[in-house]
Amino acid sequence: MSMIESCGLTKDYDGFVAVRGIDFTVDSGEFFGLLGPNGAGKTTTINILIGLARLSQGRARIAGLDVGEDMVRIKAQIGVVADESNLYDELSGYDNLCFCGSLYGLSPRLRQQRADKLLDEFGLSPARDKKFRAYSRGMKRKLTIAAALIHEPSLLFLDEPTSGIDVESVRQIRRMLQSLNNDGVTIFLTTHYIEEAERLCDRVALMVKGEIVATDSPARLIEACQHDNVLQLTVDQAAAPFLPALSQAFPSVHISEVAEATFAVTSEEILDIAPFALWFGERCARLLEARLVKPSLETAFVMLTNLDAKSMKKEKEKKGT
Ligand SMILES: Nc1ncnc2c1ncn2[C@@H]1O[C@H](COP(=O)(O)OP(=O)(O)O)[C@@H](O)[C@H]1O
Ligand SMILES: [Mg+2]
Question: N or C, which end of the chain is more exposed by having fewer CB within 10 Å?
Answer without folding.
Answer: N
